[in-house]
Design a protein that fits this description.
The structure is a single chain. This protein has 77 residues and is mainly alpha-helical. 62% of the residues lie in helices and 0% in strands. It has a domain at 25-77. It is globular and about 35 Å long.
Length: 77
């Protein structure tokens, strides 16, 4: 089994933290899990407007987007 890249590469972890900090405060206020936030970054979703322009099916299918995180994001859709 391989180790998680975030545990083995501190630079990658730092990059994700910088990118997560750029996400709209309204999204961050939902307190969704880090994997879901990384999924948003990977999909280039940083604003509520971009979130709303993304199909719910697409959001649900993002790697790292769990049902709890999606349910919280639905409040902004």
């Amino acid at each position: 089994m391989t180790n998680c890249i975030l545990q083995t590469e501190p630079q990658t972890k730092a990059w994700y933290e910088q990118e997560i900090a750029k996400i709209d405060k309204r999204i961050l206020a939902l307190k969704i899990a880090r994997p879901a936030l990384r999924a948003l970054v990977n999909a280039s979703i940083y604003s509520v407007e971009t979130l709303r322009a993304t199909a719910p099916e697409t959001l649900k299918a993002l790697h790292g987007m769990g049902p709890s995180a999606f349910a919280k994001l639905e409040t902004l859709l």
